[in-house]
Amino acid sequence: MTHPAWHTATVEEVRDRLDAPGHGLSTREAADRLAHDGPNALRETTSDPWYLVLGRQLASPMVIFLLIAGIVTLIQREWFEGAVIFLVVVLNSTIGYWQARRAEQDVAALATLATPVATVVRDGVTVDIPAPDLVAGDTVRLESGDMVPADLRITSTNGLRVDESTLTGEVLPAAKKALADDAADHLAADAPVGDRVTMAYSGTLVVSGRATGIAVATGHDTELGAIASLVQEDAGKTPLQILTDRLERTIAVILVVVGVAVFGVNLILGTGLGDAFRSTVALIVSAMPEALPVVLSVAMGVGVSRMAGRNAVVRHLPSVETLGSTTVIGSDKTGTLTVNRMTVEQVWTPDDGDGTACLRDGALTNDAEEHPETGDLLGDAVDSAMARIALDRSAVTTEERAAAPVADMPYEPEMAYSQTLRRGGDGRLTLHVKGAPEVVASFCPETAENSAGHAAMAEANQAMAEAGLRVIATASGVLDEPPAGETGVLPTPHDLRFTGLQGMMDPPRDGVREAIRDCRSAGIHVMMITGDHPVTAVAIGKRLGLGRPGDEPLTGRDMAGFDDAQLKERLKHTSVAARMSPRDKLRIVKLLKADGETVAVTGDGVNDAPALKAASIGVAMGGSGTDVARESADIVLTDDNFVTIVDAVRLGRVTFSSIRKGVFFLISNGLALMTAVVANTFTELPLIFLPVMLLFMNIVTNGIQDIALSFEKGEGDELAQKPRRRDEGVLDTRLWLRTVITGLWMGVGTLLVYRVASDQGLPVEECRTLALITMVMFNFFQVFSARALRVSVFTLNPFGNPLLLVSALAALLLQWVCTAWAPAAELIGLAPLTWSQWLMCTGIGVTVLVIVEIEKLVVRFGTWRKKKRTSASSGRVCSA
After folding, report:
1. pTM of this structure
2. Domain limits at 88?
3. Which of 1, 18, 86, 760 has a CA 20 to 30 Å removed from the CA of 698?
4. Residue of 106, 146, 151, 332 with catalytic role
């Protein structure tokens, strides 16, 4: 829906559009509008039936193959194998179903921002009504502490300041004005929410003052409702889900093609229909990496546990890996990169003093109050900052601030200053003033315009402002007698002494600058995307080391003039984006994703929720963040610390590396098995493996070892690697090559052992047993080679993954028992082997580990040579 530019409309135009009389709506008229427009509440989305949600979890090719494999194995009375396969299906589907249901809570969290009661004028009388009964055209009254119940056009105000941080990201409350009709005409129609001084928006909080306004939008038509609509948009699948779906489809096609070919060849060669069918089904079941869903779930589960220990709570399992593949982090400023608390950072005095007088003046004309139990300062962010520094430096005492003033005038945006008259312990009256520098300077003769003192003050003020600081001036004067005027009312000050300037800002969090540097080393570009003022955002960005050569700040107004292609290009040279609306943030995220980036978004406010939901991964602040942000996010940081993201990125990369290791192990084993079986089909030899052998080997070689690879702790160089490309699969080109080489070698090696044994005239049972043990030994050493994808496996602690060590040795023991124990051997079709035969199989099996280590060594040498050439080239350029 296109909203009218209510902030630029005059009060009379608003009343005419909404037919809203000055004395308020009648009860009957309000009831009619409520019946027509609906309640002042966000619309709830309709959830899909449980069976549709569950059905989507069962629709993947791998799950369908698992179901078929499970049914076939049960028909063959392989009860244990069938039970394991169906357990995998149940586990995978349950996790997916749970994640889908959790996503429905996102929009529900927005409803918690609704205020239960609104104060309105009905039938000319001020009454309290349930907020859902509020309608467009109602006259609404606001007071300090109220939650704004709808979008309001302000008609009158007395010092109204509203905390809009959840919508805009600005830590300072926004001053609101009714504005005369001619002044309102000068507001830009496309002004961002933070600049619409005539409006108060639903879900924001009144910090101070009072106001009256006309409700111009309710429920889903409010700015908050617009955000709810954006949050409901489907964010699509995560990169890992896309990759695994593609891998599953590829494996399914290959298995079907190979299965049909093997079945056909067996029939042509004269194999009976039943035997050909059983052999083909057994081959498919054994070669299919049915443990893949379990490997994915376990690896991500281990990642979840590790991240929880580093203050990052994962809400959606695939997000564990996605953060590791992130190429861009779009971070909110307030409360994420900064501490979300104004802090005085600079104090300037005209006499180069210690600033005590300046601090006293700022703390003694001040509305911040101490919490009776915790002692924390509550109230306006500026007042709290000035009171905090004065107390910390002992410029004032708590008792002095608590003493009732003789008279005071609170800060008014129109006046741009506040003043307080206090009587000191010596009985003298002192007037304390703080406010805008130019205004306060006009009260002081020595800093009045065209004086030397004014020039020094103006220079200091400009320097602080350019550094992104909010500057407040202070002044004071001793009075011989109370100023003339009504009791408790202060006239305009004069003849004061200018005591100084205080520059304040919401400072960066400790460690964030270093975290951004680490992200850059890891190939991740960090962008600040905030609703705050551009000057403030750029200043914080400089302090954090954001930006690259040639980068320029971007504003929401700039974006409005760019089409998508132009904005994509501009984003390549942007590290700070300011005055961003929720829709602007969402547009940036979508364009970055469309440009092939994997985008992580961090934030804590309602204004961040749409971008959090649309990002490849949303990261919300757990402590200071709103419910909306947390429910829209995939990961919640319990310590609200951007630094935690660096740890999470590393752990995300470890998680994906674990997935790669498991997939490499599973697919290379499957390829080895298919190579041996398919190649043997074209020989005159009997079946190399009986169907029961294939199923048994599937349990022994792929039992728990592939899952145990998920517990690897990483290779130590995760943050030195660049993010993987968006189009890169679960296995990259290098790993696919390693998979093919090792898979073919294991298959060919097994077939050669079978052929040689057969040529030596050994019984077919012994030949098959030798082939089986060779394949088992190949897989035993292959799982250890898979522990390290880049470095030599011999650099890792051999006991660093005890589960893998125990499971691999247990599998060997099980294989030996089933070979040596006559009943089991007869059931499977095995024959006992001598120790020399076991040693021969072991020697052949270890060759796969040697092949992988040689391949890694060659790659490392090539990388070293490339770096050396690059370094030499750079050196020649520098010397020139």
Report:
1. 0.67
2. 50-103
3. 760
4. 332
